[in-house]
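We emphasize that the prediction below concerns an isolated chain of 325 residues; any contacts that depend on oligomerization or on bound cofactors are therefore not represented. The input was used exactly as deposited, without trimming of termini.
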Amino acid sequence: MVHDVAVVGGGAAGLSGALALARARRSVLVVDACEPRNAPAGHVHNYLGREGTPPAELLAAGRDEVTQYGGEIVTGRVASAAREGGVFRLNLAGGGTARARRLLVTTGLVDELPDVPGLAEQWGRGVLHCPYCHGWEVRDQRIGVLATGPLAGHQAQLWRQWSRHVTYLVHGDARPDAEEAERLAARGIAIVDGPVAGLEVAGGALTGARLASGEVVPLDALVVAPRFTARSQVLESLGLKPVDVEMSGQVIGSQIPADPAGATAVPGVWVAGNVADVRAQVIVAAAAGLTAGAAINADLIAEETRAAVDQARQNSRGRHDQPAR
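Result of the prediction step, given as a token string:
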């Protein structure tokens, strides 16, 4: 079977796009590796009407909605894709293929964390990166900022909005200059020399950061700056390459270039969510999926209209070529 659209990735962006397309009476296949980026988090925040929903619960609801309108969802990983004429062939890891007229790729990104022992185990709980996702939950608590680059001062000032107890932990070469140090001091943000050698944990909860000197800085949360790396393998197999994303002169990750509707440089291929926007929160990713889904449906309508006009012209010529009786 050739589906109208194959969606690679079943997170908020992919399911939102699939829902819009299924409601547009398109045949839709979602191939989901079931590796959501926010799986370690306890709740989704800033999603109007679904504030505080556990991530797995939100995805389960989305899956139900897609299948309710006839969309098909399968568990699997797409290893690569190729165009064969006017159809895309998806090669699934472990064997098997799927075919579709259009692709929507919503494979997200990988958070690459600083190399500090214990960091990964606390990711999404005691180790955080986004104050809009987690700031309220650690308000007024002891928050450390692992300073690994030029954005650390900005991070510290941002988290200061949620707590007066913010500590700037110098890690590597991220010592603030005199001007930055003055700004930090003015806001009551302490600067502590590192580097951080590991984390202190008790009962599964973060209790502090252990410095190379052996000193332990008591903390309830540690803020880090991951590198946001697009999961772009499928797109790269089609010739699309990720580009670096910079913020204040620092490369913070990579993403696939696309227009505002998610269309890429490869005709017939759209992207949505974190693979195309490393800054997108869940509600933004869902909105991007809807936008891309609508754009894909419009593109298919345009193709079908062209085919209908060609057929009508052929039929008209055929009638005119009939001999008179």
